[in-house]
TrEMBL record:
A molecular-function term among this protein's GO annotations: ATP binding
Ranges where the record places region Disordered: 71-90
InterPro entries, A to Z: DEAD/DEAH_box_helicase_dom, Helicase_ATP-bd, Helicase_C-like, P-loop_NTPase
Annotated Helicase C-terminal domain residues: 258-406
Protein keywords: ATP-binding, Helicase, Hydrolase, Nucleotide-binding
Keyword match Glycoprotein: no
Keyword Disulfide bond assigned: no
The protein, known as: DEAD/DEAH box helicase
Amino acid sequence: MARPTDPIRALLASPPDLPVVEVLSELRERLSPSPSGSDGVGACLVLTAPPGTGKTTLVPPLLADVLTKSAATEPATGAPDGKSPGRGPGRVVVTQPRRIAARAAARHLSDLLGEEVGGTVGFAVRGERRAGPATRIEVVTAGLLLRRLQRNPELAGIDAVILDEVHERSLEGDLLLALLTDARTALREDLTLVAMSATLDADRLRRILGGTSGGASPLVEVPGRLHPLEEVWALPGRTGRLGPRGVPCEFLAHVAATVERALAEHSGDVLAFLPGAREVDDVVARLRDAAHEGVDVLPLHGRLPASAQDAALTPSPAGRRRVVVSTNVAESSLTVPGVRAVVDSTLAREPRLDVARSMSGLVTVGVSRAAGMQRAGRAGREGPGVVYRCCSPTDWARSPLVPTPE
């Protein structure tokens, strides 16, 4: 049998071994146009999957293939000049919460297709775009798609939108979800809308995507493949995790010492979570000063150049280990390979509104249990792992169940 010439179909014919493969047939069935008289109406669907199951890797190509086949068998409903909404060649837009995640997702997909970024798969973030006429999957930030939607409410030329990591509940993400739902109801019934998340209130989101019909969108759940995970409580000293001026230096020293403990007690790479770029750089400097032989210490946050971000996401060479010190970008949006131990500061930086001053800003808070479980899960993807939580069991039990919406 001849190998498919379409790179997307070639990938789907022989996909990588990821848990999401188990539901690809169900997804294809639910996303394909219904033959029972609902022509011209796009699908709406909610997909829940733990981090690392492959939802960002395989769902966009699957949807692009479904829409391309549909366009080949159905007459286009839009004008030939492309200025009116209607089915096209299967253009899919995928949103990510951060620029670093958008670049990484596009690069990973392009590598799987054996192409350069900007071909079948492209990306667009603030100040940078690599996409062309042949691009069928475009990965963008939520803010960028929001601005496109304001300029072009009908989203002409776009057949489907995948909202990834909707559980993060950012202001831009929530607003984009609301506007896309309205646009689909009033202007673009043919628009396919998929919401994907690692953890979220699925029933509530299904009702939102169900629109004015009063029904609920279908839910597809992807089972995870998590190996056994050991939990270790690395209690901080008397200074605690937070002081009057933010994160105390003593606590950052404690996190660095916990990373060294993880290196000594376990094999594999170590992933440490800190609340912000300043804390990441501080802990990286402390670990590099310790000069562990055969260990590379790498930062990972949104302020780094693309080359430094790529280095943190590249597997370690033979005979070497890595410590990746990251903000929450590695919590669910990115996959860091080779991790067998996670050191969690149990802190996060979240946007808050100061009502008295009518200003918003970033505030350092204790991480939610849902986010903490996602962080811990990074250690159990490739084998038995361990998570070191830099707090007491009491503090952990008092943590909110889910992050506070922006």
